[in-house]
Amino acid sequence: MNEYIPSPSKWVADQVELYEGSGGTKGSTYIDLPVIIVTNKGCKTGAIRKTPLMKVADGDNYILIASMGGAPENPVWYNNLKADSNVEIRDGTQVYSMKAIEAVDPDERKRLWNRAVEAYPPYQEYQKKTDRIIPVFLAKPND
Ligand code: F42
Asked: How far apart are the C-alpha atoms of 99 and 139, rounded to whole Å?
């Protein structure tokens, strides 16, 4: 089993600890909106990484938005998911084994992006803040 390395960002690491430590009954929101925890492998270290993201559901699937508050660069979890699409997603008390694939088809990306903005309107502001096109992933359950 690989080692879990917490985020160097304290507020993020604290949210993961509260969320996971409570089995999903605490720490599962950000500004009163639901959050999921994405667990995956680091593409350089091979370590277990855990990233809280806003919950954007699309049926049984989840939409993951690599916004990082509109920062100029993609978050590094983007690289991790591109290298290995296998993720575990915790949504409250439920944990699902999934594959997260970047939406590259422009129509599909737009549909998913619009759903994400409905769920969490600040994503639109984040896109205005940055020149990069914010990547969008669709995570689907493994059969
Ligand atoms: N971020 C988003 O992008 N979208 C969201 O919807 C979102 C919501 C959200 C809600 C609650 C909350 O607490 C945080 C939220 N965040 C959201 C922030 C998110 O959790 C991440 O902190 C943020 O996106 C930055 O991700 P990051 O992967 O760039 O994290 C940095 C701080 C980090 O952990 N860096 C590590 C480090 O040591 O500097 C490296 C982590 C890593 O995965 N390393 C890889 C490895 O091999 O282990 C290598 C990766 C590489 O290519 O270098």
From this structure: 5
Residue 59 per-residue DSSP state: T
Ligand 1 atom with the shortest distance to the CA of 7: 34
* Tokens, residue 116: 């994400």
pTM, two decimals, is: 0.97
pLDDT score for 20: 97
Q: Which residues line ligand 1 (CB under 6 A)?
A: 7-9, 12, 15, 30, 35, 42-45, 47, 49, 51-54, 65-68, 75-77, 79-80
Atom of ligand 1 nearest to the CA of 11: 13
d(CA 57, CA 77): 19
Give the number of other CB atoms < 10 A from CB of residue 23: 11
